């Protein structure tokens, strides 16, 4: 008997869950790509502003939104007609967002994780949070070097979209279909299948950006930043491999791409937060009292908890945790980091290095 082939519908109607900077920028992108877009936001004032003035002054000030974004505070309305949902709430709220979404979703509606992080209470990647809460829904992850303002302004940007569904003959993977749905001349998705590697890159780079910001705040220059990026990439690679991610994913947009971006620009909230802390400023002062997500703070805990459990060494992330969670003075954290025994690069090579008792104690200069 001839088997009937499943017809996979094109993705045209997109629901965006989250009216922050990134959710709004992705809604703009989807409109530019010719999609129908409904954006759900918690805040009635965000919805009102998008409807009446085509702006989101709370989270994306200075950007005029294109016409066509339907905004709502009603989740059911947002996803009723959708062909796919972009999940763009902060990482620690992904589980509750899935629980809220669940009663409104049609069967097998694809979900695209656009947040970057690891759940603190469980140490789970967000794909596993979705597997817990929405097990019957295909999942993709969108990540990469993407400051929301630049994306919304239409500046050329490249991203990774990953899904690990195995396409059968004549079908494309979810990641490939999402790439077609969202891609434009200025927003260029690259398709991948290493969901774990892509997720780990996005979660860990936020913690490393705090370190880069702290270094800048201490007036350390380009050498220190390059060291943080390079050795930080090694931390991403180790954690990713321990979780089953592919080795070469770190060289892509969601790895070195996003890490370089976030560790090098004060547009990054994580980098700015680290800088501010090193200059003795409070969180409220750093962001002028605005509601801003700094993923690296909670993720300093989730990343290092997970790494400890897996026996993966992540010294820069550990130093960031010591500062932002345990209150260690930044100078002391830097001294601890630099005072470790010397290491081989790459770690796999067999070099006879002196043990800790032979290692000279490095004295940090006081730069305050
Ligand atoms: N901004 C960027 O350039 C990029 C951000 N990302 C990632 O996107 C995610 C969202 O960040 P971003 O949009 O920038 O953050 P914003 O700070 O701009 O906004 C966060 C949004 O999430 C909402 N929110 C907070 N808690 C909940 C919750 N429990 N349920 C539902 N919504 C909630 C906020 O609403 P409320 O004000 O009511 O709390 C707000 O609308 C993060 O994981 C970030 O790392 C990824 C790439 C680029
Ligand atoms: O993820 C981002 C860029 O890719 C945004 O970084 P911040 O959250 O540090 O602003």
UniProtKB/TrEMBL annotation:
Domain named Glycerol-3-phosphate dehydrogenase NAD-dependent C-terminal: residues: 194-334
Gene3D superfamilies assigned: N-(1-d-carboxylethyl)-l-norvaline Dehydrogenase, domain 2, NAD(P)-binding Rossmann-like Domain
Transmembrane segments: none
Pathway in which this enzyme or protein is active: Membrane lipid metabolism; glycerophospholipid metabolism
One Gene Ontology cellular component annotation held by this UniProt entry: cytosol
Subcellular location, record wording: Cytoplasm
Record-annotated Glycerol-3-phosphate dehydrogenase NAD-dependent N-terminal domain positions: 14-165
Keywords per UniProt: Cytoplasm, Lipid biosynthesis, Lipid metabolism, NAD, NADP, Nucleotide-binding, Oxidoreductase, Phospholipid biosynthesis, Phospholipid metabolism
Family: Belongs to the NAD-dependent glycerol-3-phosphate dehydrogenase family.
Name of protein: Glycerol-3-phosphate dehydrogenase [NAD(P)+]
Provenance organism: Ancylobacter pratisalsi
Gene name of the encoded protein: gpsA
